[in-house]
Design goal:
Strands 1, 2, 3, 4, 5, 6, 7 and 8 form an 8-stranded antiparallel β-sheet that branches. The chain has a domain of 117 residues: Lipocalin (Beta Barrel), CATH 2.40.128. A hairpin with an 8-residue loop joins strand 1 and strand 2. It has 4 helices and 8 strands. By secondary structure, it is α+β, with helices and mostly antiparallel strands.
C-alpha cells in the first residue's frame, strides 16, 4: 500500500513539473518581448542638470508681493513678482526680501527645486542695490525650522502645488498675489 502511495505521489510531482515546464514555454516568448521595456523607459530619464542662473535686476518696491509664513514670525516676507521664473531644469528662481522685526532688510536671489525639495541661494543683495554672488552656493534640503520656514512655505503653498514639479511662473505670481487656495498643515 505504501508503494501505491509513493507511485501516486511521484506521478503528481511529474505532472506539476510538466505543467511548470509547459508554462515556461508559454511565458518565455512573452517575457522576451517585454524584457527591454523597463530599460527603454529608464533610458529616457536623463540625469538632472542645473541651468546657469541669470541674476535679475534688483527688486523695486512696487513689484514686491507679500506672503504669509504663519503667525509666529515677526518678519515680513516678499517675493519680487518680476523675478519669478521656472527654468527648463524645473527650478523656480525668485528674489526674496525679508524685513526683520528689528528693521533690517535682507535680499537674496534663490532657487527652489520642487522634486528634490531643495533650496539654493545664488546671490545676496547689498545696501547699494547691487548683487553679490553667494560664495558657497549649494543645494540644501528644505526642512521645517522656525528660522527658515519661509522656504517650506514657498515650496508647499506657492511654487510646488503637486510637490513634484513647479507651477508655471504666471500661476506662481497669481498665487503670491492672491494667496494659496487651501493652507496645508506643517506635517503634510
Amino acid at each position: 500500500m505504501l508503494k501505491v502511495e509513493q507511485t501516486s505521489l511521484r506521478r503528481c510531482w511529474h505532472a506539476i513539473a510538466a505543467a511548470t515546464v509547459g508554462a515556461l514555454f508559454i511565458v518565455a516568448p512573452v517575457a522576451a518581448q517585454w524584457k527591454d521595456w523597463d530599460y527603454d523607459l529608464d533610458q529616457e530619464k536623463k540625469p538632472w542638470t542645473e541651468l546657469q542662473a541669470k541674476i535679475p535686476p534688483y527688486p523695486k518696491p512696487e513689484n514686491l508681493l507679500k506672503f504669509d509664513v504663519g503667525e509666529a514670525s515677526l518678519h515680513r516676507y516678499f517675493v519680487d513678482g518680476t523675478s519669478v521664473s521656472v527654468g527648463d531644469d524645473g527650478v523656480v528662481r525668485y528674489t526674496l526680501m525679508i524685513r526683520t522685526g528689528g528693521g533690517a532688510t535682507n535680499v537674496s536671489f534663490e532657487g527652489i527645486r520642487c522634486e528634490a525639495r531643495e533650496v539654493k541661494v545664488y546671490a545676496f543683495g547689498r545696501p547699494n542695490s547691487e548683487w553679490s554672488r553667494a560664495r558657497d552656493s549649494q543645494w540644501k534640503r528644505i526642512e521645517f525650522r522656525v528660522a527658515s520656514n519661509h522656504h517650506l512655505t514657498l515650496h508647499r503653498e506657492y511654487f510646488c502645488p503637486a510637490r513634484k514639479w513647479a507651477a508655471p511662473a504666471k500661476q506662481i505670481v497669481q498665487t503670491l498675489r492672491y494667496g494659496p487656495a487651501a493652507p496645508r498643515q506643517p506635517g503634510e
